[in-house]
């Protein structure tokens, strides 16, 4: 009997978490990164990029629901959404559940990630590719935002950590350019790392956002496959504060949408912005003028 294959995630150098692969579905070196898709008894199908878990079919709903629905229900009348990254297309699938949206544009740098995800992760993305509102472009996200003349109500950055091609997505220059593409009342939400283990990633993101936007905040989710404590999302807008919609209004918008969810609720939405003191302090110090 052959030995089982284990794939190690070592996002934080002094630590390593390994996933036992009952089956390896894909293993490919693309022009941008190393891609592995494996099957694991606990997490289902797991997508790893350069040794870092990006999504799993068993817990993706946590990350994608909170990245999609918190800004969309807060905005309340979004028509056009831009997604930067998100090559597994699980976020686009969640966003497109909002039937009032007119367009969802996704900009992904690596076509191989999309094609492999379409083949092996169809249970989290299949509806996307038949939705006429969805447009997929293969390009560098920062360059796209700089060059496009389109404007958007919500911009979502579903990126890897700030290494390699994703580094530019965590800069003041990028955030300032996004601000120019947002309509009045628009909001930008980004993946901002695990504050306990990645204080530098979280702090840097909040600091750069504060140079570009007037309303900056953060909210947390607890997702099993992103180890090390809560995962943070950063919130940025010129005029839409994170707490501008009360619980009653969120509940009405949620009910009207008819969207069934497993993690998001109006109560969870509001509670996610209640930060543990150590995270709130990191946010406030980073965002201080």
Write up this protein.
The chain is α/β, with parallel strands linked by helices and 289 residues long. The chain folds into two domains: 5-56, Spermidine synthase, tetramerisation domain (Spermidine Synthase, Chain: A, domain 2, Roll); 60-287, Vaccinia Virus protein VP39 (Rossmann fold, 3-Layer(aba) Sandwich). It has ten helices and 13 strands. It has helices at residues 60-75, 90-95, 111-120, 122-125, 141-147, 172-181, 199-212, 247-257, 266-271, 277-287; strands at 5-9, 17-21, 23-29, 34-40, 44-49, 52-56, 80-85, 103-108, 134-138, 152-158, 182-191, 215-221, 231-237. It has a seven-stranded mixed sheet, with helices on both faces. It has a four-stranded antiparallel sheet with strand order 3-4-5-6, covered by helices on one side. The model has no long low-confidence stretch (mean pLDDT 94).
List the helices and strands and how they pair.
Layout: E1 5-9, E2 17-21, E3 23-29, E4 34-40, E5 44-49, E6 52-56, H1 60-75, E7 80-85, H2 90-95, E8 103-108, H3 111-120, H4 122-125, E9 134-138, H5 141-147, E10 152-158, H6 172-181, E11 182-191, H7 199-212, E12 215-221, E13 231-237, H8 247-257, H9 266-271, H10 277-287
Parallel strand pairs: 7-8, 7-10, 8-9, 10-11
Antiparallel strand pairs: 1-2, 3-4, 4-5, 5-6, 11-13, 12-13
**Span between termini:** 61 Å
Tell me the overall shape: globular
| Gyration radius over CA | 18 Å
CATH architecture of the largest domain: 3-Layer(aba) Sandwich
What structural class do you assign from the helix and strand content? Answer: alpha/beta
Give the C-level CATH assignment of the largest domain.
Alpha Beta
How many distinct beta strands?
Answer: 13
CATH fold naming of the largest domain: Rossmann fold
For the biggest sheet, the summary is: 7 strands, mixed
Poorly predicted residue ranges: none
| Overall domain count | 2
Considering the protein shown, what is the CATH homologous superfamily of the largest domain?
Answer: Vaccinia Virus protein VP39
- Percentage of β-strand residues: 25-35%
Average pLDDT reading = 94
Secondary structure: helix percent: 25-40%
Reading side by side through the largest sheet, how are the strands ordered? Answer: 9-8-7-10-11-13-12
| Order of helical and strand elements | EEEEEEHEHEHHEHEHEHEEHHH
**Helical run tally:** 10
